[in-house]
Amino acid sequence: MFLRRCSVESPSNCVPLSTLILHRLFSSNSNDDVQKVFGVLSSTSTPEQLKQSLKSTGVFLSNDIIDQVLKRVRFSHGNPSQTLEFFRYTGRRKGFYHTAFSLDTMLYILGRSRMFGHVWDLLIEARRKDQALITVRTVMVVLGRIAKVCSVRQTVESFRKFRKLVPDFDTNCFNALLRTLCQEKSMTDARNVYHSLKHGFRPNLQTFNILLSGWKTPQDADGFFKEMKEMGVTPDVVTYNSLVDVYCKGREIEKAYKLLDEMRDRDLSPDVITYTCIIGGLGLIGQPDKARNVLKEMKEYGCFPDVAAYNAAIRNFCITKRLGDAYGLVEEMVGKGFSPNATTYNLFFRVFYWSNDWQSSWNLYMRMMVEGCLPNTQSCMFLVRLFKRYEKVDMAMQLWGDMVEKGFGSYTLVSDVLFDLLCDMGKLGEAEKCFLEMVEKGQKPSNVSFRRIKVLMELANRHEALQSLTQKMAMFKRPLHHDQSTVSPIDTSGSLSTQCQLMMAK
C-alpha cells in the first residue's frame, strides 16, 4: 500500500530482559514527566504560576527532563518568555548546571523571538557559572538568529564579542561564522568576510568545505578549489560532493561525472550524497529515467540509496507530472524499509497545489496522519492555501486542530491564511477559537489578522469577545525596558535598526 508505515524491530535477545523492562519503564515515566512540565509551560502565564505549578507536579527536573522540555518548546513554538523563566528557575538550584544542549536550545528560542538582549544576558550568566557550556555550536545558534535580522557587519561584530565568551576562540568559531553567512546571507558576503578575517585564523579543510558548499556557479567554486590546493589542503569526499553539487545545479553533468572518476582515482569512494546530487542534476536536464537508473547503479559500487536519494528521484518525476512513476519509487522505497518523510509528501502536495486538486491533497494528508508522519510548515501552507482557495473551512479547521494537538507547523504562517478564510466566510466563532488556541501556545497572531477580526466583531456587536481578544494581544506588548532588542526589525534600506543597535550596545 502506498506510503504505508514500515518499521524494523531490532533484535533484543542480546540484552537482558530485565534491562529492557527497566529501560521501557523509565522511558515511559520520563515521557509522562516531560508532558507534565511542558503542559505547565503552555498553561501558565506568570512566573509565580509557573513555579507553583512546577512544584505541584512533583516531577524531579533533571537535565534529561529539561533538555526534552526545551526541545519540545522549540519545535512547538512555545512561549519564549515563560520558557526563559523556566530555564532560570531550574538553573538557580544549588549545585545544578544546565547542559550545553539546554543552553543552546534556550538561546535558539530567544533568538527566534528576537529577544537578543536576553540572549547576551544568558551568555554572560553562562560564562560566569560554567564557561564550558559555550561551544562552537552556541556560536552558530546565536549568529544564525542575529544574521536573520541584522546586517553582515553587525553579525561579524557579534562574532567578535564571542572572543570573551568562548574558551577556545579558534578556527572552529571562524568556520561557524562562515557557515552562518552561507546560510543566512550570501556567498559573496561569506567570501568577503573570509578574505578579511582569514589572516587571524588558520583556514582548514572544514573552512573550504563550508565555502565550497554554498557557491551557485562552477566558476566561483573552481576558484576556491584552486586556492584550497595552493594552500596545501587536501580535499576529501565532502569537498568533491560540493563540487559535484554545484556542477549538477549548473547543468554541467559531464563535469560532475568526471569528478566521480577523479574521486575514484584518489581512492575516495563516492557516497550517497554524491549520487543524490547526480540524481538531482539529471532531473534538471530532463532525464528522470536515467536518474532512476542511478539508484541501481550506485548499488554496484557498494553504496545504497537512502530516503534523500529516493526523494531526489521522486522529485524528478513529480516535476514532469509522471505521478505513476513517482508512486512506484515510493513503493520501492517503502519495500526497502524506508519510511517516507514530510519532504516526500511535499513533492506530491506541490503537484496537487498547482493543479488545484484539493481532494487529492486532502486524501494524502489523511494518509500522512495515519502513517504517523507529521507534516512540516511547507506541507501545512500547501494545504491551507488550497483550502482557502476552495473555501474548505472544515478541512482547514481540522488541519489547525491537528497542528494544535500534535505541535507541528508554524502557527504564525498558517494562521494568517486561516484567519483570512474564516473572516471571508463570516466564521467569527471559529476565528475566535483559533485565536485563543494560538495565544495559549504563546504565539502572537499577526496585527493584520487581529485588525480584520476586530472589524468583523465590531460589525457583529460582539464587544465583550473583542475586548477579551484585545487583552490577549496586549500580553505580547513588552515594555521597552523589558527587552529593548525586541522592537523593530531591520529595515530594507540597509540602515541599522534600533534592534541591532541596542543589541550590539549591550
Topology, please?
Blueprint: H1 17-43, H2 47-57, H3 63-76, H4 80-91, H5 100-112, H6 116-130, H7 136-149, H8 152-161, H9 171-184, H10 187-197, H11 205-212, H12 218-230, H13 237-249, H14 253-265, H15 272-284, H16 288-300, H17 307-319, H18 323-335, H19 342-354, H20 358-371, H21 377-389, H22 393-406, H23 411-424, H24 428-440, H25 447-459, H26 463-474, H27 498-505
Tags for this model:
506 residues; mainly alpha; 27 helices; Mito_RNA-Proc/Resp
Structural overview:
It comes from Psophocarpus tetragonolobus (Winged bean). GO terms for molecular function: mRNA binding. The chain has 506 residues and is an all-alpha fold. Among the domains are: 349-409, no CATH class; 412-482, no CATH class. It has helices at residues 17-43, 47-57, 63-76, 80-91, 100-112, 116-130, 136-149, 152-161, 171-184, 187-197, 205-212, 218-230, 237-249, 253-265, 272-284, 288-300, 307-319, 323-335, 342-354, 358-371, 377-389, 393-406, 411-424, 428-440, 447-459, 463-474, 498-505. The chain is globular, with a radius of gyration of 25 Å. The chain starts with 16 loop residues before the first helix and ends with a helix.
Work out the helix count: 27
Q: Helix-strand pattern, N to C?
A: HHHHHHHHHHHHHHHHHHHHHHHHHHH
Radius of gyration: 25 Å
Q: Which of globular, elongated, flat, extended, rod-shaped describes the shape?
A: globular
Q: What portion of residues is helical?
A: 55-70%
Overall pLDDT metric: 87
Largest sheet: none
Q: How far is the first residue's CA from the last residue's CA?
A: 58 Å
Poorly predicted runs are 1-28, 478-506
Q: What portion of residues belong to β-strands? A: under 5%
Q: Can you count the beta strands?
A: 0
Alpha-beta classification: mainly alpha
Protein name: Pentatricopeptide repeat-containing protein
Pfam families: PPR, PPR_2, PPR_3
GO molecular function: mRNA binding
Organism: Psophocarpus tetragonolobus
